[in-house]
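Exam review. A common question shows you a sequence with its structure tokens and asks you to describe the fold in words. Practice with the pair below. Do the first one on your own.
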Amino acid sequence: MVMKDDDPRLLPPLSMLRCFEAAAREGSFSRAAARLGLTQSGVSRQIAHLEDWLGQALFERHGRRVALNRTGEAYLGEVSAALGLVRTATRRLIAPHDHGVTLATLPGFGMRWLAPRLPALSAIHPDLMVSMIARTDLFDFAAEDFDAAIHVGPPDWPAGASGEPLVHERLFGEVMVPVIAPALRARLGIVSARDLLEAPLLALAAQPEAWSRWFAADGLELAAGPPRQRFSQFLMLAQAAVAGAGAALLPRFLVETELAAGLLEVPVERPLEGTRAYYLVHPPRRTRDGDFARFRTWLLAEARK
């Protein structure tokens, strides 16, 4: 059966699509309902109507939890991209002079590197509004209302449903230093890299080999393998080090406050060049936005410092 592009059956009601997108992202009809300000039964009915409309199931039901099937996953990618474009177009039409920049940022980067520098940005561009939202996941820009994101790692943010390759602009490489609580350092008598071999070592879950590389620079080897205590985020790792749980390798910019307050010390002044870098990631079309262009220019200049 051939359907024309203007066939009304090709455009399900927006209410159905919104419920479908929310349920797919939340993995739960009840959480989707809370997000949309609806009842759980209301969301369930809208999705059932959508599945009837399409003549295909989109979810697998597992008690109170739901998960997209393959059909649903494929449909979500294209529907979310379309809804994202509608949201962006509507926002720019309703508030063309109050857009500013919405940035998804890693929690540690946002709190410890970017936020302290925002007063300098305001001094240059007092009318520029920057909204920072903490995110650690790789999302689809076409489906989310973000202008850009801060990413750490290789330049590998996926293009998403739109298929449009993203721009990765390098800010700076990751350089880490060993830190330890003063009381623990005194108790263990740590003055050299070899002394640190006797300390409990803390690591980022994504970089369990970092300590091995740091010791290898001094010709030392970890006999017991990678650290047993691992953390998913640098800020959690820093707090564990402050509490005296062990020594940690951390980017210096993330612990400047603790170092200045005497909560942490650098027992051996030898940095480790990380294997990752921080990037500003954004769709190419964002560079045509005046507010984002001003923010981007400032951010890249700050990173070069």
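Now try the second one, then compare your answer with the model answer below.
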Amino acid sequence: MPEMQQLSQKAYDRLVAELQDLTTRGRIDIARKIEAARELGDLSENGDYHAAKEEKGKMEGRIMHIESVLENCEIIEESSGDVDAVTPGVTVSILYEGDDTPELLLVGSIEEKREDIDVVSPGSPLGEALLGGKIGDTVSFEAPHGILKVKIVSIEN
């Protein structure tokens, strides 16, 4: 069974809109590209045809992924006010042991990604270590090259 994902309402709505777009406009556009490429002749040496079929495969994979996420998700409520512990959906500033510059992370599903912030999954080693942590706590987790320690500098909604 697929892993249960926790999504904000905003991410859920974005995924629903993306799925709607891909299953309507996206499929129609790909079908047109494939048809136009077929009209060029011999399919065995037709680069446009093979590119369109590859694009179709990637799009269908994305559609299946979104459908799986939407079928296996729960929408988390954004809490109002101050947050005192790391939970899915919060932004946390951490400082790796030995570093001087804090790193800002969003704890949540990769589907929550934004351009301005990195996302860490609650199920990842770092995510699991951060969950429940409070400002000032130092947590450790196992990374490929050994145990790493991070200090929680701040927590925000």
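Model answer, second protein: The chain has a mean pLDDT of 90. The chain is about 40% helix and 25% strand. Full marks require stating both points clearly.
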